[in-house]
Design a protein that fits this description.
Bound molecules: magnesium ion
Order of helices and strands: EEEHEHEHEHEEHEEEHEHEHEE
Radius of gyration: 19 Å
CATH architecture of the largest domain: 3-Layer(aba) Sandwich
Strand order of the largest sheet: 5-4-1-13-14-15
């Protein structure tokens, strides 16, 4: 089940795959170094929209992993990238934290809290969520009936090391859907095809020649397989080898790895 070839591009989930919390996972540094030696392109993914890509760059650097800003793709990158390309004229109401609002502003996306002007209610992982924001979303979606609902990422909760976690974007989407009856029509995080599309657009590599590496079957692995990539499940995070049997055959990982270094063929 371990790869015997080099891929044309390596796409890595970060938490649970490269590091766990603030700890680098064993063999991650040497694995990345061997890929870098060959000049093979690398991308680092996260569904978390509460951090700017530069913060991930800093985190990777602090763990001893040099990277480029263009290699970091989180849901701020995919959300603003899609909006700019497809709905550049839309007025957005972001229910999110300052990094999301900054990213939208930098992308030139108009924002408003006036329900009569809002075209897109953009739900996100927002630890300052409150009734006032729900009311604006309600008015834009249900009363004015002009807006649509999108979300940065589909996660129910964000897990922390040690077993705790925080309610994530799906809980805010659910609150808005419950009062308006309007369904979220688009999300920009794993396992959405939109995320993989943004990544592949930035790489000069066919999907069949790229591998998605992650610790979660239903997000990382499912997304890679649906996009026509090979996918490697690394058993250092969320999913266990025995969970694979519960997944539909077409969504199963191509490779199952005990440690990240098993991703690469022998020297
Ligand atoms: Mg992960």
């Amino acid at each position: 089940m371990e790869p015997t070839r080099w891929y044309g591009a390596y796409v890595f989930d970060m938490d649970g795959t490269i590091y766990l919390g603030d700890e680098l996972l064993p063999t991650a540094a040497q694995t990345l170094a061997r890929i870098r030696e060959r000049g093979i392109p690398v991308r680092f993914l996260s569904n978390n929209p509460t951090k700017a890509p530069g913060q991930y760059l800093e985190k990777l650097a602090n763990l001893g992993l040099p990277a480029e800003l263009s290699e970091i793709v989180n849901t701020l990158v995919t959300t603003t990238g899609w909006l700019k390309r497809h709905r550049g004229d839309a007025v957005v109401f972001p229910i999110g934290e300052p990094p999301l609002k900054r990213a939208l502003a930098e992308a030139g996306i108009a924002m408003s809290e006036d329900p009569a002007k809002i075209d897109i209610v953009l739900a996100s992982y927002d630890r300052s969520f409150e009734y006032r924001k729900l009311q604006i979303a309600f008015d834009a979606l249900w009363f004015h009936k002009r807006a649509v609902l999108m979300s940065t990422n589909p996660d129910k909760f964000c897990p922390f090391p040690g077993g705790r976690g925080e309610p994530d974007c799906a809980s805010i989407v659910a609150a808005i859907e419950a009062c308006t009856g309007v369904k979220c029509e688009r999300t920009f995080g794993k396992p959405s095809a939109l995320m993989v599309q943004v990544i592949m657009d930035s790489l000069d590599v066919a999907a069949a020649d790229a591998v998605m590496v992650g610790d979660r079957l239903m997000t990382d692995i499912a997304m890679g397989r649906l996009a026509g990539m090979d996918a490697a499940l690394v058993l250092t995070g969320d999913s266990r080898a025995e969970d694979v049997a519960d997944v539909a055959a077409e969504l199963r990982p191509t490779h199952i790895l005990e440690r990240l270094s098993d991703l690469l063929p022998e020297a």
